[in-house]
TrEMBL record:
This is DUF58 domain-containing protein. InterPro entries: DUF58. Pfam families: DUF58. Residues 184-269 form the DUF58 domain.
Length: 363
């Protein structure tokens, strides 16, 4: 009798194991998304997971595993085990899923570090109640999060004491703007016929033309030098210092563009997802330009593509003029100074923003 019961139990367990091995992950769905696509470093967002079981067979246990970069900090949560490494963190969660049931899990996440984060998959394992079978399934994901550099108040940016950036509303290059008018004046020889104000002419009995107001032709090029000294190889040896440089660049960009200054970006680094070429974004205005600047800084890798003086040589080959250059750098080597002088000789304004290191603070 006992032997018969044992045989029946073995057959039953085998049948259960076969059913769960074949069907446990059928009609199971998984999705994950962030509450925002882009945030600034230090901001908190929400990551939402949806797991659904669209069949009658319940899942007594489900194990979900995924890898993420270390720059995203998750709050403590029940049934979530986070195992951190040097660059990545492994997320493991264990739960059950009843028949025809959906679970929505919400995680509070702090975007602690600038970067471009990608999550391409998650692996789900499930099985029978006693663990005889453990089928797994990989769920492809296309989840990305852009973390912009931290933006600090301008008073925390170590600009020179008499920097023109302290008052960007005072423009350095003033030109007549045909789209802005400030009343009328009498016609002068050489004025275009299209500038005649016929109503004012009829009213005064003298030929009157529109008097154009003045506006600023003001452009700013922010230059981020990833070198910590003038003999540095490609890899950045002081990442915290360069991260501060990128934060200063983002802060200046946000401030200048909100004041209406067309702003561009130059860097001897390269960006994630693109070729290993130095960065150059032409000066421009508007929200799309600001987003492009911040996204580029978010994706900037801590590795040089060329030397900064070579990057400025390339800039000089375009014969730039009437542009303000802000050089954000950890050093002012002789070759760099030479290129800066060349920019000034061509009618450009240049200012340095020096990024201090530990050695500077100890002096």
């Amino acid at each position: 009798m006992l032997a018969w019961m044992l045989v029946n139990a073995a057959v039953l367990l085998g049948l259960i194991a076969w059913v769960y091995g074949k069907f446990s992950l059928n009609h199971v769905g998984y999705a994950r998304f962030f509450s925002k696509h882009a945030v600034f470093a230090g901001e908190e967002i929400e990551m939402v997971e949806r797991i659904v079981n669209r069949k009658l067979l319940p899942l007594p246990w489900v194990r979900l595993e995924s890898m993420m970069a270390q720059g995203l900090v998750f709050g403590e949560q029940q049934n979530l085990d986070i195992r951190g490494g040097e660059k990545f963190q492994n997320h493991i969660s264990l739960f059950s899923l009843r028949s025809y049931r959906q679970i929505v899990r919400r995680h509070r996440v702090v975007a602690a570090k600038r970067g471009y984060y990608m999550l391409d998959s998650a692996t789900m394992t499930a099985g029978d109640p006693v663990g005889l079978t453990r089928p797994s399934r990989r769920f492809p994901l296309s989840l990305t999060l852009t973390v912009y550099p931290e933006v600090v108040p301008m008073r925390e940016v170590p600009l020179p004491a008499h920097s023109w950036l302290g008052d960007v509303t005072v423009r350095r290059w003033i030109v007549e703007d045909p789209f802005l008018t400030a009343g009328t004046r009498e016609y002068r020889s050489g004025d275009a016929l299209r500038s005649v104000n016929w109503k004012a002419t009829a009213r005064t009995g003298r030929m009157q033309v529109h008097r154009n107001d003045y506006t600023a032709d003001h452009r700013l090029m922010i230059c981020i030098n990833l070198e910590t000294h003038d003999r540095m190889w490609s890899a950045v040896l002081e990442p915290e210092r360069i991260e501060r440089a990128i934060s200063y660049a983002a802060s200046v960009a946000v401030y200048a563009m909100r004041q209406g200054v067309e702003t561009g970006l130059l860097s001897n680094g390269w960006t994630f997802g693109g070729p290993k070429l130095p960065v150059r974004l032409d000066p421009g205005g508007g929200e799309a330009q600001l987003t492009a600047l911040l996204e580029t800084m978010a994706k900037l890798q801590l590795e040089t593509a060329v030397t900064m003086h070579a990057q400025l040589d390339d800039e000089l080959s375009g014969d730039p003029s009437d542009t303000d250059y802000l050089i954000i750098s950890c050093h002012r080597g002789a070759e760099l100074e030479e290129r800066v002088d060349a920019l000034r000789r061509r009618g450009n304004g240049v200012e340095w923003l020096y990024v201090e290191g530990e050695g500077d603070r100890r002096r």
